[in-house]
Design a protein that fits this description.
The chain is α/β, with parallel strands linked by helices. The chain contains 14 helices and twelve strands.
Length: 430
């Protein structure tokens, strides 16, 4: 055992001398009801910062409309759990607002500084063959996509970026943590290669929701996501010189009883210590800066991410300080939310009905989980539906039915045929 710890210590020391730590952390949503994603990312920054990764090696992408939002009862502060510390202070605002896009994310990740010239801070992951890279993403997702404020990142594009980085020797080892519904689909259908030193974990498998948690009465929104909270609070107190990626994965998997936490890629990397990716300036779990770490809070209110909007309205309705008029308004909002969900589902079904005449085939396309094969068609269909029908960031429930577009593409319909059907259905619906 002593020999093992000595080997780990020597390995960590070697990295301190020869390699750099790089981190890219992204919240892909905006809007107050999505508060939790930016709170998760701000908390992640505090962990990386306190453990010695310099700000010049941490790139933060987030819309930044939460801390100073008019609904925030503590202007300029963001918390990630009930009565928790401010996690917003000091967070670099590298790319905010409309700069938070999949294209910018991929350029930053691949170190394409010329592509980022004049955009945000211009910072990129300028890693080399001896460097370790940590990537954390929090937002909504659907089969083979994770969402950004105005568009989506497709799994095929992410895989191509990772492959290019491997070919260009842009990292020694790289780790992905992804918080999103159906986030396992970003890796499981493409079998993240096991020989390119990339390890990934996701909040859910490829066909289920991730979960929000920590509803806050004062803010009337959820403060965190279960998977994210579990790894963040574990990292708050972990000894980075001995706790491994595998140990953190097992802790998060065991404590996340709402969805199936998954792992992909080179699983042998699980033996590597957290310090190689989240910072090595950690003295046996002791906090090395003024960021306050408070004990974990039991999670008793987890809800599926797609149902967050309804649950927020429900919590507001249960607040007996609300006036009868306010409660009546909330009931109307809940009714409107349900009606919107019905219209969204109906729109997808109408697209199917326009293209497929056989009722049994219609049912098959609507009921079968996606097993995406036709990526070009699917990408175009997803974009067309967002542009012509429902914006996924505003109508997150639409992401729950995106799999239908994958099934239409895989059924043999041409890209133009699918996109034309979407446009025609939505031009009438709207």
């Amino acid at each position: 055992m002593k020999t093992l710890f000595l080997a780990l210590a020597l390995f960590a020391l070697a990295c301190n001398i020869e390699c750099k730590h790089w981190a890219l952390i992204i919240a892909g949503s905006n809007g107050w009801y999505n508060y939790r994603h930016q709170a998760d990312v701000c908390h992640a920054y505090q962990i990386l910062h306190k453990n010695g990764i310099p700000d010049e090696n941490i790139v933060v992408m987030m819309y930044d409309d939460i801390a100073n939002n008019r609904q925030n009862p503590t202007p300029g502060k963001v918390i990630n759990k009930p009565d928790g510390p401010d996690v917003y202070e000091g967070v670099p605002k590298d790319y905010t607002g409309e700069d938070v896009t999949p294209e910018n994310f991929l350029n930053v990740l691949q170190g394409k500084s010329s592509a980022m010239n004049g955009i945000g801070s211009g910072k990129v992951i300028a890693s080399g063959p001896d460097d370790n890279v940590f990537v954390y993403f929090a937002d909504h997702g659907a089969p083979d996509i994770i969402a950004f404020p105005t568009s989506e990142l497709h799994s095929k594009d992410l895989q191509e970026a990772i492959t290019n980085m491997d070919k260009n020797n842009q990292y020694k080892q790289m780790v992905f943590y992804i918080e999103a519904c159906e986030s396992g689909s970003m890796f499981n259908r493409h079998k993240l290669a096991t020989n390119i030193n990339v390890f990934a974990t996701t909040a859910a498998n490829g066909a289920e929701s991730s979960y929000a948690c920590y509803f806050d009465k004062a803010r009337e929104t959820y403060l965190g996501d279960v998977y994210s909270i579990k790894w963040l609070e574990n990292s708050d107190t972990a000894d980075f010189s001995s706790e491994t990626l595998s140990k953190q994965f097992k802790v998060v998997k065991e404590e996340t009883n709402t969805s199936h936490v998954m792992e992909f890629g080179d699983l042998t990397m699980g033996d590597l210590v957290l310090g190689l990716f989240q910072g090595e300036n950690n003295n046996n779990g002791m906090v090395l800066n003024t960021t306050k770490v408070t004990p974990p809070v039991p999670i008793t209110d987890a809800v599926p991410s797609p149902d967050v909007a309804l649950w927020i309205l429900y919590h507001k309705l249960m607040d007996h300080t609300k006036s009868p008029e306010e409660r009546q308004h909330l009931l109307r909002e809940m009714e409107h939310e349900q009606e919107t969900r019905f219209r969204i589902r109906s729109t997808f079904h109408k697209v199917v009905e326009k293209l497929v005449w056989n009722p049994s085939k219609q049912k098959e396309i609507i009921k079968t989980p996606a097993a995406l094969k036709e990526h070009v068609c699917y990408k175009a269909a997803v974009t067309k539906f967002r542009q012509s029908c429902y914006d996924y960031n505003k109508y997150e429930h639409a992401l729950r039915h995106i799999y239908i577009l994958a099934n239409l593409c895989d059924a043999g319909f041409q890209t133009e045929t699918v996109t034309n059907a979407i446009e025609k259905i939505c031009s009438v619906a709207h």
